[in-house]
Amino acid sequence: MNPITRVAVVGGTHGNELTGIYLVKKFEQLPHLIRRSSFESIALLANPKAYELRRRYVDLDLNRCFRPQDLENPHLTSYEALQAKKIYQDLTANQTEQIGLLMDLHSTTANMGMTLILNHQHPFNLHLAAHLAAVYPEVKFYRWAQAEQDSPFLRSIYPLGCAIEVGPVAQGLLDAHLFRQTEALIHTILDYVEAYNRGQLFPTKETLTVYQCVQTIDYPRDGLGTMQAMIHPNLQSRDYEPLYPGDPMFLTFEGETIVYEGESILYPVFINEAAYYEKGIAMCLTHKELVTL
Ligand SMILES: [Zn+2]
After folding, report:
1. Does the domain spanning 210-292 belong to CATH 2.20.25.160?
2. Would you kindly state where each structural domain of the chain is located, as residue ranges?
3. How far is the CA of 260 from the centre of ligand 1 (A)?
4. Ligand 1 center to residue 164 CA distance, Å?
5. In the prediction, which pLDDT does 121 show?
6. 118-131: buried (b, 16+ CB within 10 Å) or exposed (e) per residue?
7. What pLDDT score does 148 carry?
8. 270 — alpha (psi -120 to 50), left (phi > 0) or beta?
9. Closest residue by Cα to residue 125 from 97, 98, 101
10. Which architecture characterizes domain 6-205 according to CATH?
11. H-run or E-run covering 259
12. CA 171 / ligand 1 centre spacing (Å)
């Protein structure tokens, strides 16, 4: 692979996730912090209007607007659809035969600690992840079930990179600890790219633990879509812990426990994520996999 020529640090894809927004504002004011000698660095606030309104989005979720067919569709004219096209054009301008890496900074109300969401199965991404796992043993690696060629996510603009998802933190709230952890992770990634461009390789382990999403679970609802139960208190904040058949999942408003009826041990994440109520997702069930590099 050729050297990486451009690295984009994107925040505020969701306007109420302040960790990434204030990091991007910091990098806009102090661009030398993300500058390295071997590539161009860009800091980008992705959804400024949503941030002004202190909302996740204006018309629709910007981080579901990046499917190739949607970017080319002239009939999609919502604020976020137009913003997605603009971001795509800006980030891919003069990019012929160049290689870009993108970090998309998010936060979650779920207890997911520091999570890296991997894009493509590009070998570079897995080696970067393995390096980060060696430096930060507490970081977890997650993958959505989405097919790569149909990815709606902003991070898929470039073949390299990841989303950084940190929590738990409420929407619209800054948490200094998570802010600093995210910033450290960004610098480690920038340094890794710089070393890679210089032909330096970091020794890493040969395997990486990845939490692969296999299924999303909605809240129990009635025929009209009204929620009938909450996340069970025994499951709340237990992201990345094993869920065994028969374990409590939900608690109805009458106090009845609903258990996990699957047959295999899975690892739930995004448990009770506030932004996913409207998406019909109470949690994502993952399979813990050992990926060989
Ligand atoms: Zn987000």
Report:
1. yes
2. 6-205, 210-292
3. 27
4. 9
5. 76
6. bbbebebbbbbbbb
7. 67
8. left
9. 101
10. 3-Layer(aba) Sandwich (3.40)
11. strand 257-259
12. 9
